[in-house]
Design brief:
single chain, alpha/beta, TIM Barrel, nine-stranded parallel β-sheet, two-stranded antiparallel ribbon, 11 strands, 37% helix
């Protein structure tokens, strides 16, 4: 094929046609496609400290999983040390009403007792960077107690993750009021303990991350959950997802509520 800008072409056509040589070809003029916006996921695994062989599978997940360890479990301190050595972020999975046990917070307890139980829980789980609530559907709705907790966490230089076990939670709102580093959960992975349901919840989290830029997932060390995560997490990057640790997620969100949790960045 003869190029339209070749000397032979010009000799065969009228001089004005040679001006075509000044125009870019369609393939050369195409605008570069804009890079897709990044989407970020964070993963917390709750209820750790009960079973070392099972919990160690969490440490083997291929990324920055956050380990939420219950203080009233037989291996709390040992697993916290293992998670810390493995480079994972450790948080206290603090029991709150309707949870029971020696560490659990209940609405009728005075602040002095809440303080005592929180302090004992931190001593039971070393290397903690923050906390999230275990259960807590009644407790996280208690404004004065949550306000005190956020002030205490700020004093201790800890962050807070609202597991949002209740629509009535005021925990994240109280954290936001004083500028405490915090974030809220978006998706529970395993309310239904089947691999199919868990895989669907993971897909929901991925779609949400693409929609709003970030998503925070919470799961548990159930065999079905771990099987799905071991299989699917290595595929995240190919789906345009970057898996980041919870501290990075808190920084990205800058203490702002997502549309599902508030309005104009403010928690409701």
């Amino acid at each position: 094929m003869i190029s339209r800008c070749s000397p032979l072409f010009r000799s065969l056509r009228a001089p004005l046609l040679s001006l075509l040589c000044l125009l870019p070809l369609a393939s050369q003029a195409a605008e570069p496609t804009a890079a897709a916006p990044k989407a970020y996921l964070s993963l917390i695994i709750d209820d750790l400290g009960q079973n070392l062989p099972r919990d160690r599978r969490v440490l083997a997940l291929p990324g920055p999983v956050t380990t939420a360890i219950m203080p009233d479990t037989p291996h709390a301190a040992e697993f916290a040390r293992e998670a810390h050595r493995a480079g994972k972020i450790v948080i206290l999975h603090m029991p709150m009403d309707p949870a029971t046990g020696p560490f659990a917070w209940h609405p009728e307890l005075p602040i002095e007792e809440l303080h005592k139980r929180l302090d004992a829980a931190f001593q039971a789980v070393p290397y903690t960077s923050g906390i999230n609530n275990h259960m807590g559907s009644r407790m996280t709705a208690q404004g004065p107690a949550m306000a005190w907790l956020m002030s205490e966490l700020q004093r201790r230089h800890k962050f807070f993750v609202d597991s949002r076990t209740s629509a009535q939670t005021v925990a994240a709102a109280e954290a936001q009021k004083i500028g405490l580093a915090s974030v809220s959960r978006d998706v529970f992975l395993d309310d239904e303990r089947t691999e199919a349901a868990i895989a669907q919840q993971l897909l929901t989290a991925i779609k949400l991350a693409h929609k709003q830029g970030t998503a925070v997932m919470i799961g548990h060390p159930y065999p079905q959950t771990l099987a799905v995560l071991e299989r699917e997490l290595p595929k995240l990057k190919a789906q345009g997802i970057e898996w980041i640790d919870i501290k990075s997620m808190i920084s990205l969100r800058s203490n702002q509520a997502t549309a599902a949790h508030g309005k104009n960045g403010k928690y409701r």
